[in-house]
Amino acid sequence: MRLSNIPFAASQKWDMPTMSLEKVRIGIIGAGNVAARHADVLSAFPDVTIVGVADTDPHKAEALASRHGAPAYGGHADLLDAGEIDAVYVCVPPFAHGNPELDSLSCNLPIFVEKPLALDLATAEKIAAELSRRGLPSAVGHHWRYLDVLERAQDLLRGREIRLVAGHWLDKVPPVPWWINREMSGGQIVEQAVHVLDLARVLAGEVSTVHAVPSTTDGVDWATAAVLRFHGGAAGLLATTCALERKHRAGLEIHAQGLSLELSETSLVVDGQTVHEDDGQAKVRVDREFVNAVRGEPADVRVPYEEAVRTHRLALALARSAIEEGPVTL
Question: Which listed residue, 83, 158, 224, 249, has the most CB atoms within 10 A of its CB?
Fold first, then answer.
């Protein structure tokens, strides 16, 4: 299997007016930890101002909004009704996706959406269709695509046959009450390991068949082992667990003809010996490029919403396979 031709670094342009030097006014829907991270990054950009934070928990909304000198709202509808917004960040739990995105699009606003896109495929496809119809900029928070070591990995793999892809996410249960309930989080593969699946698609191409086996179906799968078949012929493995007391490791191994790579959020290890440390700026780049797109400037948006739907479809296929205890063809 040859290196995928998925253009991870292909710039995407939209027909948006250039905003000159005025600030991009961003509203944030959701006030959890991920929203706070984005808010900190965005507030450091000289051409961005946060104009409001909405959350169904008014205390969380007020806490995050006050840190950035913005008003707080009890729901996304109030934030949108306030107006004077150029773009929206949707950073809500998996079960809350859908209305925030569609309501923002109805106001003709570009959206940045944190993964996972939803609990199902229909919601994500509806949002993707509306984005396409309106021709608005979009981005999804698959920030691993902005790792500088990913570019090095692609260069090393170019022209080699990929034989084996092995992903893993070995971690603890995150400290939010909804996560342990599959009906609210989608499960560990959909909510966490989707980052690894996204990298697998970038480096090894699309997947044709998956077969996942869970350790238990009590609430959330405490562990899952899966095999994947890539269109180009490579064999794939995925191992996940949330039964640990701390994060053990999360990443992707690519074994090609004459080459072995281990890629994580922090480094690239070549042939088990040479270590290349990442520069740690991926979470900044993902926000910067979306802001550039909103401004109508050249933007390196590596995961527009439509591209993220493809990764979401793969994650859902694995989750479905674990529940149905059988192979699923994509």
Answer: 224
